[in-house]
Amino acid sequence: MDVILIPGFWLDASSWERVTPLIEEAGHRVNPLTLPGLEAADADRSGIGLRDHIDAVVEIVDAAPADAQIVLVGHSGGGAIAHGVVDARPDRIAHVVYVDAGPLGDGLSINDELPVVDGEIPLPDWSVFDDADLVDLDDALRAEFRARSIPEPKGVAYDPISLGDERRYDVPITIIASEFPSSALVEWIAADSPFTRELARVKQVAYVDLPTGHWPQFTKPVQLGQAIVAALA
């Protein structure tokens, strides 16, 4: 399969470097992405919005051979981007794997509460995050994460997503749950939580629990790679 890895906020393609080899060893072609504005700390991020990131991935999907089995893997905010791609090209995507993420509903933004500095969103102080986000992210990993972090374009976090093709619900998905157990997602769906209404409409959903914090590609990369490979099987 052709596996497109979409990073979450503040991260580029290199954030998948400990996960990619496991997927390749299973025989898949892997394409970890660096999205527009995340090329470097001094890249021009002005005017880049959520649609620009979705369109950048759609362009890669469109360039793939017509018979390619394309799988999107989206971490965190990258999950919303993946869902936007599915909405744009529901007939081209075979499967979506959400890594501590899920499909974002029409009209919602990924996170419009993140602190903006000079028109962009640098990686905030750790105190901004919940304790559950930071499980297993020790001092060394935090230092590594901060050193590699790149400010996120404000529009990617703040722009509402626009969806329009209900065939997106036909594409099967796997959710790798880390920060919260999958049982919590099931409970939120049953309670009609706004956070999970879009997920509730997807017809085929598999859940995998990988208990750790919000960044398993750093805290449990081997287990994450194995979980992705299992989802593709």
From TrEMBL:
Pfam families: Abhydrolase_6. SUPFAM superfamilies: alpha/beta-Hydrolases (SSF53474). GO terms for molecular function: catalytic activity. Residues 3-223 form the AB hydrolase-1 domain. InterPro entries: AB_hydrolase_1, AB_hydrolase_fold, Sec-Metab_Biosynth_Hydrolase. This is Pimeloyl-ACP methyl ester carboxylesterase.
